Amino acid sequence: MSSKPAMKVLVLHSLPPPDLVGRSPLEFDLENAANHIAGALPGSVTEGICGEVDEITALLKTHRPDVIFNACEAPLGRPDLESHFVALLEWVGVPFTGCGSETLALCRRKDRTKAVLAAAGVPVPRANVFPCVVKPIDADGSAEIYFDSVCEDEEARSRAVARLHGAALVEEFVSGREFAVALWGCREPEHFSFTEICFHNGVRLLTYAAKWNEGSEEFVNTPYAYSTHIETGTRDAIVAAAVGAWKAVDARGYLTVDLRLDAAGNPFVLDVNPNSDLGPGAGIARAAEEVGWTWERFVRQQVEWARS
Description:
Layout: E1 9-14, H1 25-28, H2 31-38, E2 45-49, H3 53-63, E3 67-71, H4 82-92, H5 101-108, H6 110-119, E4 132-136, E5 150-151, H7 154-162, E6 168-172, E7 178-185, E8 191-197, H8 208-212, H9 217-220, E9 224-225, H10 232-249, E10 253-261, E11 267-274, H11 283-290, H12 295-306
Parallel strand pairs: 1-2, 1-3
Antiparallel strand pairs: 4-5, 4-6, 7-8, 7-10, 8-9, 10-11
Helix pairs in contact: 4-5
């Protein structure tokens, strides 16, 4: 009796662009995350891509994978092409992990995501209320978010808006505790885990430096807490908001929802991050481990869900 052939998994990750202006190379270097994924999938093949269409289609013809494990965040060094890569896989009919192209395209636009969330009854910060936070509508990784992106008056807001390279989203600065809720499941958010971002010494928000510049004051003063106490009622409200966000953007596989609490402990969704960071020791990998999942279980489950 012959055994069932092993599933062929191709782990694809985007490569950093050769020339970066104003962005950290760490943000675009996904080789470590891809190797972390492949380590949980014996027999898988890992390929780094620049992101040219011919390059991608050639790899698909060469390897003929049953599933793509998608770690392509910035084809051609452009985060705005993340959804285009997935759309290509949808077009040629190759199953892939994570969210679909429409979800990725929606969540890249913070203004449109906020409108969709609000229409679905998910709590979001109010627009144009002081103190406010100014951020680009179509950037990820906290790009162009600075220490003084929190503005107390019209003059400060005007300065913050003027320095952005594109359009701005201006919304109420919710000043309470901040959480990143990792959610994962096939079509429904079946599992979740909390991470709290702690703020010390006057730092009030997660800036670009806090994420990517390990020597910065912001980085040192924004540690992550994976085991954190949350009162039961608040916890339930946070989960409800995060699950509502998942459903509103039609997610699948995994994502992270960023929320903050107001003075009364009510949660507000700040951002929805599909296909969030899968690097070792942090992000959704660490969050899943905190609730008893092994990394191998998480990765293999994503592959199974991609084919369902």
